[in-house]
Structure formats: structure tokens, C-alpha cells
Design brief:
Helix content is 59%, strand content 0%. The chain is mainly α and 170 residues long.
């Protein structure tokens, strides 16, 4: 490795392994022109996605979860936990949050506060579940530094760690 490349790695805060793994995940191959520069840009993009929009400030600050183990449960244990994510999202979106409908409440339909509480709990639960999955994928990827996994499993791990595609929703 050239001295210039070593200085670039040190300045970026990346290790050669991290940069090459990022480049591999993004489809760049060793020896391709500008691979290192593209890997550095990709790593910065991932850093912006992850650190620029944290799911939880307490996690970023490496503090304890302020809710303790409240969300270490099955989804079904949450408020309206038997509803799918889509069903809950639709129910929250379509509900009239301005007026209280006594007839709907008497027939067993969830009220506005129940729907909003369920949505809040679901978001918190999903955030923690996603972080646990990400940590598991990183551990598998780190363990597989010698290519012990079959290609099919490695592809799933790499796909799970790939940053989401940017979309423009207007």
C-alpha cells in the first residue's frame, strides 16, 4: 500500500478492511480505477445516513435505553400488536383524530389515543428490532472474514447491510 493511500485511510478513519468491504458491498472490485476514493465516498454516505438521522439519540450517545426492557418483547405484546404494520399505519392515517365517536368506541374500535400509542410503540419496537438485526449482520460479516459462508448466505448478509437506495418522494 502506498504512503498516499495509508494517509488517506488515516484521514478517513477507515481501515483498509472496512473500505474494501464497503467497496465490495457497493459492487466495486479490487484494482478498479478509483476504488479507494469511491469506497471513501460510500463510507461517508453511509455515515451520513446512519449518523445524520439517528433512530435514537441515546443510542448514538451510547447511553442506556431510557425504556429499559419495555420493548424487548414479541410484537404481539405491544398495544394493538396483532395488527400488521400496514393495518396499523392505515388505521392511524384514516382515523378521525378530531372527534370522539362513542358508537365506534362502544363497538370495540380503537380510539385516537389508542391508535397513536400503538403507532408510537410500534416505531420504537421496530427501531430496536432493526438495530438488533443490523448488529447480528455485522457480527456475521465480521466472522466471515475468511469466506466460510456459502455465497448465498453471504449475499443475504451483504444485502441486509447495504444502505437504502435514495428515492425522491417530491
Amino acid at each position: 500500500m502506498s504512503d498516499d493511500m495509508k494517509r488517506a485511510f488515516e484521514a478517513s478513519g477507515l481501515t483498509p478492511t472496512t473500505a474494501h468491504r464497503t467497496a465490495f458491498n457497493l459492487g466495486f472490485r479490487a484494482g478498479s480505477e478509483g476504488m479507494h476514493q469511491r469506497a471513501l465516498r460510500a463510507e461517508k454516505q453511509v455515515d451520513r445516513l446512519v449518523n445524520g438521522m439517528p433512530a435514537a439519540q441515546w443510542r448514538t450517545a451510547r447511553e442506556a435505553d431510557p425504556f429499559g426492557t419495555t420493548y424487548d418483547c414479541a410484537r404481539a405484546a405491544l398495544c394493538l400488536g396483532r395488527m400488521t404494520d400496514d393495518e396499523l399505519a392505515n388505521a392511524v392515517f384514516l382515523h378521525n383524530h378530531r372527534d370522539f365517536d362513542l358508537g365506534a368506541a362502544m363497538s370495540g374500535e380503537p380510539s385516537s389515543i389508542v391508535l397513536l400509542t400503538a403507532a408510537k410503540e410500534r416505531i420504537r419496537w421496530l427501531s430496536r428490532a432493526l438495530e438488533r438485526t443490523r448488529e447480528s449482520l455485522l457480527a456475521v460479516q465480521e466472522w466471515d472474514t475468511h469466506g466460510r459462508l456459502p455465497d448465498s448466505i453471504r449475499a443475504v448478509v451483504d444485502r441486509g447491510l447495504r444502505p437504502p437506495k435514495e428515492t425522491s418522494n417530491g
